[in-house]
Amino acid sequence: MLAYVVRRLVATVFVMTFVAFFVFSLLYLTPGDPAATIAGDLATADDIARIHRQLGLDDPFLVRFGHWAWGVLQGDLGTSIFTNLPVTTLIGQRVGPTVSLTVIALIITLSFAIPLGVIAASKVGSWIDRLVMVVAVLGFSVPSFVLAYIAILCFSVWLDWLPVQGYASLSEGFAPFIEHLILPSIVLGLIYGALIARITRAAMLEVLSQDYIRTAQAKGLTEGKVLVGHALRNAAIPIVTVIGSGIALLIGGVIVTETVFAIPGIGRLTVDAILRRDYPIIQGVTLVLSAVYVVINLLVDVSYTFFDPRVRF
Amino acid sequence: MALAPAEIAPVVQRHWLGETARRHPTVMIGVMLLLAMAAMALLAPYLGTVDPLAVAPVKRLRPPSELYWFGTDSYGRDVYSRTLYGARVSLTVGLSVAMFGTALGLAIGLVTGFVRRLDFVVMRVMDALMSVPPVLLAIALMALTKASLGNVVLAITITEVPRVARLVRSVVLSLREQPFVEAAVAAGTGFWRTLLRHILPNTIAPLLVQATYICAAAMITEAVLSFIGAGTSPEIPSWGNMMAEGRSYFQIKPYLVLFPGAFLSLTVLAVNLVGDGLRDALDPRLARRL
Predict the structure, then answer these.
(1) From CA A4, how far away is CA B237, in angstroms rounded?
(2) Using H for helix, E for strand and C for coil, what is the string for chain B?
(3) Helix, strand, coil tally for chain B in percent (to 5)
(4) Which of chain B's residues have a Cβ under 8 Å away from the Cβ of A34?
(5) A149 vs B261: CB contact, 8 Å cut-off?
(6) Neighbours of B231 (CB within 10 A)
(7) Is A35 helix (H, G, I), strand (E, B) or coil?
(8) Cα–Cα distance, B229 to A236 (Å, whole number)
(9) Model-level pTM?
(10) How far B228 CA lies from chain A's nearest CA (Å)?
(11) Given an 8 Å threshold on Cβ–Cβ distance, is B143 in contact with A19?
């Protein structure tokens, strides 16, 4: 087990080196002078020269990558061209709202999607099964920002139950914190929830046809005990895998959801950086979010032994 | 006395279209919706539209009416015309990415699955690309290129290729051990012939299903990119651009966001329904479960 974790960590280091190299090279894949591209159409020669100096564009490519990677290892993701602040500081300032939004979305999604998937599988063909499948297809089809506007229109503009936009931190009180985050979290979690409900149903259907389930039923266990204790535990691995790989949907979704709901998180920081062509921020955010994604999937892989003790690494 | 064939075999011959509609009603809804959207995109100039780029400041922010079916936007442009022309952008991006993404992924997956020496290096590069969440990768790629439809297609294609390559590779790896492939190799069939005649045809079914999902994902990603200002150039009537422009007026003029949003959702839904139907038809075992 420990050997496996170490092996996976080493593999993760390789993957992250590739990602870092890729993220760094993005700036140079663009045709022409990257400094001129970043500076935009209205830039003066001085602006372009300043960006040239700031990014060290006059050195050879590998030297620049070396400097940048060394900085990254020491926690230095570069300096924002627009605000002149370190990218790590900017990300640090914005991480709170994004983590709050993602965690609440995760809690809401998992507490609905998994039970719904289990119920749908146990009553396959029933109205609840069909409803879950319809919601799942709709969840995949209605883009989160379309859903966001419909939700704002219903719950904030017409019913006036929740604030339209904005963010309140936990220090301002629990009620305003939740009031501001409930709608964005549901919107963010819907497509993720659709994916998890669907895979839960599929994994449960596979397990429910096994002999040991019939045995459990034959010895008189209640339906709940059979479903949760025997079936769900054995169906856990594909579900947990999708929970991990689906985090990509949440990360992509955060960028859009924060824009629609005006939440000052990392997603909003990314969008502002795109509009200002503040490339060090885009590089930094891409690298950090990819690292989060890779680490979560590593944890998911390691968690397999918890759900299925037969899995040996 | 000889009997007429109809009396011997009283089998009711249903028309294949009717049969498909009966067995897979959702697929038929998807196909019809998709055909309607394609017709709308192609025939946009003949469907009572005006120039989608024509600016008319005096007519700005008019609500939907008999004259302006979907109202006008903040530049006085006709939202109905822009919505219809928007279908062209969405469908072009969806189909192009599905085509290029599957073609490239197929080529990479076939070769890496069959040539062991290439497998390790190429798949590690694919792993690295897959470690960046797709929307984020597309944003990063678009952030430094000029806003154009071609660049949007290229950026989204790059995000989709690793997934296709991995799918094809997994199919090829299992096929490689099959007796018919071993027989072909033992009979002296050349490398390319084995790959193209024996392996390739068996990857088509899962690839076709994957292509529909790529098409749906690409349409959403295009809209997301345009929505956050990293997609097609703002004057192009794409659904994402229209929603981005309508954002500031959303509370007073919700139709500016809702019309393009509804059309985008319907188109993606149609593609997803067709994809689900294809999966059901091509893999009955999976269809029963998902």
Answers:
(1) 52
(2) CCCCHHHHCCCCCCCHHHHHHHHCHHHHHHHHHHHHHHHHHHCHHHCCCCCCCCCCHHHCCCCCCCCCCCCECCCCCEHHHHHHHHHHHHHHHHHHHHHHHHHHHHHHHHHHHHCHHHHHHHHHHHHHHHCCCHHHHHHHHHHCCCCCHHHHHHHHHHHHHHHHHHHHHHHHHHHHCCHHHHHHHHCCCCHHHHHHHHHHHHHHHHHHHHHHHHHHHHHHHHHHHHHCCCCCCCCCCCHHHHHHHHHHHCCCCCHHHHHHHHHHHHHHHHHHHHHHHHHHHHCHHHHHHC
(3) 75, 0, 25
(4) 144
(5) yes
(6) 30
(7) helix
(8) 39
(9) 0.86
(10) 6
(11) no
Query: What is chain A's length?
Result: 313
B282: number of Cβ within 10 Å: 14
**Cβ separation B220–A143 shorter than 8 A:** yes
Count of A-B CB contacts under 8 Å: 148
What are A192-249's pLDDT values in tens digits?
999 899 899 988 988 888 888 888 888 888 888 888 888 888 888 888 888 888 888 8
Subunit contact B269:A252, Cβ cutoff 8 A: no
Contact status of A228 with chain B (Cβ, < 8 Å): no
User: Tens digit of pLDDT for each residue in B52-98?
Assistant: 888 888 888 888 888 888 988 888 899 999 999 999 999 999 999 99
Residue B53 CB partners (closer than 8 Å, separation 6+): B77, B235, B237
- Collect all residues with Cβ–Cβ distance below 8 Å to B217 and sequence separation of at least 6: B134, B160
Tokens of A26: 């993005």
* Chain A residues 85-144 with a CB less than 8 Å from chain B: 137-138, 140-143
Residues of A within 8 A of B288 (CB-CB) are 205
What residues of chain A lie within 8 A of the CB of B132, using their CB?
A: 19, 22-23, 286, 289-290, 293
Yes or no, beta carbons of A282 and B139 under 8 Å apart: yes
Q: Give chain A positions within 8 Å (CB) of B247.
A: 260
Note whether ipTM > 0.95 here. no
CB atoms A19 and B128 under 8 Å: yes
CA–CA gap between residue B183 and residue B175 (Å, rounded): 12
| Separation of CA B182 from chain center | 36
Cα of A310 to nearest chain B Cα, Å: 24
Flag whether residue B220 sits within 8 Å of chain A, measured between CB atoms: yes
Residue corresponding to tokens 């600016």:
B55
Helix (H, G, I), strand (E, B) or coil at B78: strand
Higher-pLDDT residue of B285, B39: B39
CA distance A145 to B226: 12
User: Which amino acid belongs to residue A216?
Assistant: A
Which of A29, A202, A256 lies at the smallest CB-CB distance from B290? A202
Q: Mention every residue, 6+ apart, whose C-beta is less than 8 A from residue B261.
A: A143, A145, A146, A149, A150, B239, B243
A225–chain B nearest CA distance, Å: 22
- Identify all chain B residues contacting A270, using CB atoms and an 8 Å cutoff: 136, 139
Phi and psi at B238, nearest 5°, equal -100, 155
